[in-house]
TrEMBL record:
PANTHER family: DISEASE RESISTANCE PROTEIN (TIR-NBS-LRR CLASS)-RELATED (PTHR11017:SF385), LEUCINE-RICH REPEAT-CONTAINING PROTEIN (PTHR11017). The lineage of its organism: Eukaryota, Viridiplantae, Streptophyta, Embryophyta, Tracheophyta. The keyword Transmembrane applies. It comes from Abeliophyllum distichum. It comes from the Eukaryota. Residues 1-126 form the TIR domain. This is Transmembrane receptor. The keyword Acetylation does not apply. InterPro entries: AAA+_ATPase (IPR003593), Apaf_helical (IPR042197), Disease_R_plants (IPR044974), NB-ARC (IPR002182), P-loop_NTPase (IPR027417), TIR_dom (IPR000157), Toll_tir_struct_dom_sf (IPR035897). SMART domains: AAA (SM00382), TIR (SM00255). Keywords: Leucine-rich repeat, Membrane, Receptor, Transmembrane.
Amino acid sequence: MDRGDEIAPSLLEAIEDSAAAVVVISENYASSRWCLEELPRICELRKLVLPVFFRVDPSDVRRQKGPFEKDVESLEKKCGVDKVKRWRNAMERVGGISGWVYNESFDGREETHLIESLVKRILNELNNSPVVVAPYIVGLDFPVKEVMKLLGVGNSAPQLLGFLGTGGIGKTTLAKAVYNKLARHFEYRSFISNVREAFAKPDGLLLLRNNLIKDLSKSSQHHVDGNNAFMSVIRRIFQEKQVLLVLDDVDDASQLNELDIHREWFHEGSQIIISTRNRDALPSDLVNEIYEVRQLGPSDSLKLFSYHALRLEKPNDTFLNLSDQIVSITGGLPLALQVFGSFLFDKRRLEEWPDALEKLKKIRPNHL
């Protein structure tokens, strides 16, 4: 990215997709409109903020004094008090967070210790964080409520629920949303992504097994090589611990057998979600219920497309007709809406859209 006066949309997307933000504030931080525009966005998203005060006093950051005073006052003259007030508020908030202070007197050993401490804090936070859902989601409230009813939270019997739907319809997004809602109730939890893709690799099964055991045994050192060793460890965990487990994008019931997923092994209160495109991957002797994930309705489809194409909740009159046509092509598939919208994001002139529409008509959403 080329730096300039205006913050790039791609950087805002990166901020939204990140689980944490390390903000390094040096004495000339307030001279950069780019940096100052990043800061309130990070705060607004309620991300984990870890400030590093690089040879500056946190109280000066908090009060915009010392090396920041002249730069902030200069920006008020150029950009207006109202706009700079948002930046001031962000600096005040971040300056009040207990972070890491890098002093001028630091030697190599102290610098290394600071970095190690920062990395350790990030890893600890991420290990306790639920999975990250897409930065902009629509139409999830109702299906999440339906799934919570099917799982019957508080039910003593283990619940195994299947998510069934075509590719790109939003099974993963729904699974992440439900996982995040339940995660705080489970000490032992794991979200295993891309099961189908992993099984296609030569060492995919071994990787999946070790990821599963690492998550549920709460140890980075646990490693199994043989089938019997895996079954011994994983069955003990399943039988003794109440677990929350998501297996996303399973392709075949045999994959579940390889991972030793059997209803009778799970401890009471466990919640297991299996998402798949294949109904045969959800045998009745394994799952309690099957939830069919449905496409988005017209209104939510338009919102999702508009966000990715225009960064607006609804297209303006200029783009509304063409947006409606594009949305109808997608069939309410969230992935298609995101891909088509992103394809049009840098096309800001109306005359560019009809040609793009013709190209999109040739793309079937199920081929994305």
